[in-house]
Amino acid sequence: MNRNIAIILTIVTVLCCGCPGLYSLGNFVFSFFYVSPDTTRALAGSGLDPATGLLMSRLLVLCGGLLGLVIPLAVGFVSFRMAKK
After folding, report:
1. 58, 11 in Cβ contact below 8 A?
2. Is the Cβ–Cβ distance between 17 and 68 less than 8 Å?
3. CA distance 51 to 83
4. DSSP for 22-60, written as a single string
5. Which H or E run includes 67?
6. pTM for the whole thing?
7. Span 8-36, pLDDT tens digits
């Protein structure tokens, strides 16, 4: 793989996955400090206990954010490793 292609792939994955992943992790951290009353009302209407639904939504955001950060790291590692050959 050409080194220029490796750089382009890394930049594209950082923009498409890394930035939204950081945003998701920021929302995860922010959700511990502020919970909107509308959120608890919406979760109460879903049949779940509001605390359980809030925990599930926080874990989903955490997993999505971590996955969004791992993908660019993996693409960068693999593409630059292949570019050295």
Report:
1. no
2. yes
3. 48
4. HHHHHHHHHHTT---HHHHHHHHTTTS-HHHHHHHHHHH
5. helix 50-83
6. 0.75
7. 999 999 999 999 999 999 988 888 787 66
